[in-house]
Amino acid sequence: MRHALTSSVELRKLASTGSIDKDTLLASSGSDLKIYDSHDFPAYLPKLNSLYDDLFAGGKGFRAKLIRMINSHLGLPGKTEQLLSQTVEFIHNASLLHDDLIDRSVLRRGKPAAWTKYTPEYAVLAGDYLLARVMVNLSGHGNIHLVQRTAEAISELLEGEWLQDSVVGDFFVTLEQLDRIHNLKTASLFKWCLRAPFIALENHDKALHESLEEMGTILGQLFQRGDDLLDYDVRNDEGKAILGDLKSGYLNSFGAFVTRGKSRAEIDRLVKSRDLAEFKATLGGEQAFETAVKAFDAANEELIRLYKHHLERLPSMLAESQRGLVKDLEPLTDLLYWRRKPQ
Fold first, then answer.
1. Model's pTM, two decimal places?
2. Which residues pair with 112 in a beta bridge?
3. What's the Cα-to-Cα distance from 45 to each of 8, 40, 41, 50, 98, rounded to whole Å?
4. What does CATH list as the number for 172-343?
5. How far apart are the first and last CA of the chain?
6. What's the chain's average pLDDT?
7. Which residues of 175-212 are buried (b: 16+ CB within 10 A; e: fewer)?
């Protein structure tokens, strides 16, 4: 293995002594989650290994850490936990390779995007290869339900990317249309992260999976909407480029929220803003902008309340030994939408 992963057994031992908690899991460096087998990157494909090293460097590994946190309550074998963590990171990173090329993004995590450093052909092949390895590794595990759910997640992600590409340049896209895209693209892996450990555990309870599916959908939507606010320099501690989406011809969810009910002429003036100051002035000034942000936050608070409703129902669907998971899932909305880091 390229890097050892702290097993769920070790995590439970640490948790029992008070040495580790959910905040430690979610805030820790992503470097300890760079998990893949040497068989995935054979020596005769050296560029693939280098490309993946570059891609993973600087990543948060959040989805893999979410798998690890969930499994600290389920008790899957370390090998299975590693497979799940590897699976979600392979899929996520494959999507980044393809996204950057489609969007012609020249930077990824502050470094040259793979297609600019290794050529577009290598970026496409590397993304395809990662997805192929996902199916090879899962097939070897032998859980056909897990293979099927993973194939569905990949399909949803690609459908979302296809739809998103179709609305580039469409500044009259609605929030509802964007929600559909985000539910396919962004939420697909959040849903997978919540459900896959239970599928691996052979728990196929319908009510449980319906709740986890809804919770994953909400988390994906909240993450995307929180990310879209960064484009307008709202809670932008990550230093995302201001109006990057808009300048790329993409009206994101906050932009669609702000332009609801406006005339085509008003929308046309807004989307032609050269900078954030001009955008705010066209909208009606700083106060109008702040009012729009508060209204957007309020709309997303409704989603957070719905998430908590599902969370309240979850204990009745879990074994007693698994119910600690509910407490650990609770802060995810703060982390993903409000971008409040664990204290």
1. 0.88
2. 107
3. 32, 10, 7, 9, 19
4. 1.10.600.10
5. 32
6. 87
7. bebbbebbbbbbbbbbbbbbbbbbbbbebeeeebbebb
Strand partners, 107: 112
pLDDT value of position 159: 95
Distance of CA 236 to the CA centre of its chain: 17
Per CATH, 1-142 and 172-343 having the same topology is answered: yes
Tokens describing residue 198 = 């239970």
- Three-state secondary-structure class, residue 107: strand
Per-residue pLDDT tens digits for 211-248: 999 999 999 999 999 999 999 999 998 888 899 899 98
pLDDT tens for 12-25 read: 443 333 333 444 44
CA distance 136 to 266: 52
Lookup: tokens for 188: 């697909």
* pLDDT score at 10: 45
Q: Give residue 83's Cα distance to chain centre.
A: 18
The reported pLDDT for the residue numbered 168 is 93
Domain ranges within the chain, ordered by starting residue: 1-142, 172-343
* Token pair of 139 as six digits: 């097939």
Within the chain, where are the H helices?
A: 8-16, 22-27, 46-56, 62-74, 78-103, 114-118, 120-141, 144-166, 175-184, 187-200, 206-230, 244-247, 253-259, 264-271, 276-283, 286-313, 324-329, 332-333
For domain 1-142, give the CATH number.
1.10.600.10
As to burial, measured by CB atoms within 10 angstroms (0-12 exposed, 13-18 middle, 19+ buried), residue 257 is buried
